[in-house]
Amino acid sequence: MAKFDVISIGDTQYDVFLELEEKTKLFKDDGYQYLGVAFPEKIPAKKYTAVPAVGNSANVAIGASRLGLKAAFYTHLGSDQVGKEEVEIFKKEKVATDYVVWDKERGSNFSAVLNYQGDRTIIVHHEHRPYKLPKFADAKWVYYSSLAEGHDILHHEIPEYVKKSGAKLGFNPGSFQIREGLEPYRELLKVTSVLLVNKQEAQTLLGVRENPPTGGEKTLLQGLKEWGPEIVIITDNGNGSHAFDGKEYFHRDIFKVPVIEMTGAGDAYSTGFVAALAYGKDIQTAMTWGAANAASVIQYIGAREGLLKKDELEKRILNLVEDV
């Protein structure tokens, strides 16, 4: 019997949320949207909120624990007060810290989240860490996401663990991994059970500049599926999420709720989706779990606050479906 339902792998961040004033400008160029602020200038922030112990994989570890799964987390924490605070948060959330590594030479990772009109741009700083996969106990699922540069060794160590243990792998490439493209992850993708990306990330990975892409989301799903994952998930903000398992295409609309702040929506979706599969649910149900969890998170500031417990998620789905 597996000791853990999910072992999450990734960096931990300290997020600072800055709500920008209304006179900030948005503009589009070459199909992409940009945030414009005066430069050089001091820009006042309407509101400031600090949230420790977050990040793609941290959010999934905590989210999985709240959904009733036995979760553990492999991460490197800085040797500072922030790191000490973060490990206590994981313990409080009942995430096993067996695989937490203390970096005695470096501090904590940091993100500045620029909020504007319900959405955000994130400026991320990751410290370089001496990554090496610990000797994991057996787990049903491994979830792998955002790490700093220098994580190449894990491209081989994670597939070896998955093959040996029989664990399923959820892979959500972070910003540094997206920049590297698909080729460095060829071995990893061949053993991936679920690949989760947003639409912009999918286009970047496949080198697709057209927006919308020729052939729509199906072209992106097919392109990513060719690299080996069993299931591909693409989230697309207000357009919902799309999935492809090599045989059938799936779509799930979003649940329309008031939006406070978008950070963590993708992680909440990933948490719900992977947790549903861990509970033996089908793809369509898993997409509903993901959408409902994301709909909760975006009603709060920060990626952790709105993550739901299992009974809360099930009630929320019933209420949201009734409201449609």
UniProtKB/TrEMBL annotation:
Gene Ontology molecular function: kinase activity
Keyword Transferase: yes
The name this protein goes by in its record: Carbohydrate kinase PfkB domain-containing protein
InterPro entries from the UniProt entry: PfkB_dom, Ribokinase-like
SUPFAM superfamilies for the chain: Ribokinase-like
Gene3D superfamilies recorded: 3.40.1190.20
Protein's UniProt keywords contain rRNA-binding: no
Annotated organism of origin: Candidatus Wildermuthbacteria bacterium RIFCSPLOWO2_01_FULL_48_16
Ranges for domain Carbohydrate kinase PfkB: 53-307
